[in-house]
Amino acid sequence: MDQNSKSEQQAIQETILAFYHDGHALYDPDLYKQILHPEWKFFLIENDQLRIVDREEFCSWYTSEKFNPNLNWETEFYNIDITENLAAVKLRLENLEVKYIDYLNLMKIEGKWWIVHKLSHEQRK
Length: 125
Hints:
Elements: H1 3-26, H2 29-32, E1 36-46, E2 49-54, H3 55-60, E3 74-83, E4 86-94, E5 98-109, E6 112-124
Parallel strand pairs: 1-6
Antiparallel strand pairs: 1-2, 3-4, 4-5, 5-6
């Protein structure tokens, strides 16, 4: 892997940790808006059916009233695959109540990495 790819991987990891991970950990929708592109979509299976959630609805799930500082969120990166201004990331996002395996597609737009698409598997504990 060349140095440019390593620096882009690091930039993606730092961006995801600062805005996506912390958005979950702090229940702060303003952090999500720094990384989830306005056209972002979340595809999930609900009651054995495809459900598509937009950024506005997703952000509404995370509010300060629901914040629980005792959940101890952690993020582990499994894979980051980069081709020019596109990236695919597989990660584990977990706390004491739930474990997510997220597949995120990112695009680098005007020098900034944005998550544009998400697939997620949820496992309640």
